[in-house]
Design goal:
With 322 residues, the chain is an alpha+beta fold. It is built from 13 helices and 7 strands. The protein binds glutamine. Glutamine (GLN) binds at residues 68-69, 101-102, 121, 165, 172, 200, 265-266, 301. Belongs to the glutaminase family.
Length: 322
């Protein structure tokens, strides 16, 4: 991209963020995790990094926030990398549910109890138990080390958020007990809870999320070191799951109206990965990684302003996959 094109993109992004910040008023910070309620609901920040080296950010882009459900993407990738895709899929399916992220009722319907996909809590708790390491500490450390390869530093766990959720995780515990009962949890319930909730409490910035998005968009290749961090097969499967299941029970509409693989978290974060388009008419060869933060969320658990901003951005900049 030429320097004046970058300046124009930066200006466009600044204008969009300013306009879509208004939509933060349509949501509220997650109240079921007490520590998340403290976030500033008016915040909206975004970072975009392209395969051509364009780096633009706008709004409240310097704040750290916890990954929450975005961590499900990273643990799924690491589980597939260490165990192989077929072995992971014995424990978790790839079928969207259309249900809320923490829903329990399909676990009984899905004989013999395999969770529907790794982007909902049930599936992610199973995946947490599949991570390498024979203790919660080792499993968490293996994931933090993997993240270090992607973003160049080992991220911190926000203990305040972790403890807040640990004390109130009754629904997640009930999911874990069910999974244990049906054989879809490979460690103890409390161990799986510690791993899952600590991974949800990893803190990052939008720039770091955007970098992860770009690695996914580039099929596992790090943009600066060119190291292959995970296979193209894993990248492709993960992006498909993000597109079909990544935005909770809004995933179908997000795929239809935004059309990019994305994963949100109840902290208001969104990770998006935009591979080069296959559409002849589009003729777009650039990949993008996007990190977004807007802690006011809607009834599905997605950032209200974030969804509006991505919907507009995807249309304006021709980012849709299909
Ligand atoms: N830690 C959260 C939970 O388990 C993550 C959910 C989310 O971000 N949707 O409820």
């Amino acid at each position: 991209m030429l320097p004046n094109e970058i300046i124009s993109k930066q200006q466009q992004l600044d204008e969009m963020v300013l306009e879509f910040k208004n939509y933060t008023a349509n949501g509220a910070t997650a109240s079921y995790i007490p520590a998340l309620k403290k976030a500033d609901p008016n915040d909206l920040g975004i970072c975009m990094i392209s395969s051509e080296g364009t780096f633009i950010k706008s709004g409240d882009a310097e704040k750290s926030f916890t990954l929450q459900s975005i961590s499900k993407v990273i643990s799924f990738i690491l589980a597939c990398k260490t165990r192989g895709i077929p072995s992971v899929l014995e424990y978790v399916d790839v079928e969207p549910t259309g249900d809320a992220f923490n829903s329990i009722f399909r676990l009984e319907l899905s004989h013999p109890g395999r969770p529907f996909n790794p982007m909902i809590n049930a599936g992610a708790i199973t995946v947490a138990s599949l991570l390498p390491g024979d203790s919660p500490t080792k499993k968490i450390d293996s994931l933090l080390s993997f993240l270090e390869k992607m973003i160049g530093r080992k991220p911190m766990i926000n203990e305040d958020v972790f403890l807040s959720e640990w004390k109130t995780a009754n629904r997640n515990r009930s999911l874990a007990y069910w999974l244990k009962e049906t054989g879809y949890l490979l460690c103890d319930v409390e161990e799986a809870m510690e791993v899952y909730l600590k991974l949800c409490s990893i803190e990052m910035t939008v720039s770091e999320l955007a970098q992860i998005g770009l690695i996914l968009a580039r099929d596992g290749i790090h943009p600066y070191s060119s190291e292959l961090l995970f296979s193209p097969e894993i990248a492709s499967l993960t992006k498909t799951l993000m597109l079909t299941c990544g935005m909770y029970d809004y995933s179908g509409r997000f795929a239809a109206f935004v059309g990019i693989p994305a994963k949100s978290g109840v902290s208001g974060g969104i990770l998006a990965a935009i591979p080069p388009s296959a559409r002849v008419l589009n003729n777009r060869s650039t990949s993008w990684g996007i990190g977004l933060y807007g802690p006011a969320i809607d009834k599905h658990g997605n950032s209200t302003a974030g969804v509006k901003l991505l919907t507009y951005l995807s249309k304006e900049w021709n980012l849709r996959l299909l």
